[in-house]
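Dig into my protein:

:::
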Amino acid sequence: MGGVNLYCGSFAGADKSGSAFEAVFGELAVLSSPDIREVVNQLMSELEVARDYLLIAPDDARLLLPALRKQAEILWVKASAETALAQMVVDEESAGRRLDPSESLGWKLYCIDDLIAACETSAAEGEPIALVW
């Protein structure tokens, strides 16, 4: 899979902002309630057979939204840079190599910020979120 883009109704995420979604959802499942884990596990199961996109239903987006906001707060506390893009640079300089999005705090921040915006749009507009690669 190359980069992953996020779309929902009137919302279009930043270029490749969904690329760390597997890492974000993996961490979310560990830190959350059984209901959230069930949604994440279902999405990961669907990912195994998905060809070029994955949809998150509006009801699931509404359920994920508070947990994503809490996870974002936790991630931003760990950040040493003021923006997700700047954190990506810090991450790669610290590692001394180019990082996979799943390994980078900056990529996770970039992803979770747009996932939150997509979930908010889904809740407001009743549209599913599309993760497209």
Remarks:
- Helices lie at 21-31, 34-49, 58-78, 84-95, 105-125.
- The CA atoms of residues 87 and 106 lie 4 Å apart.
- The chain has a mean pLDDT of 96.
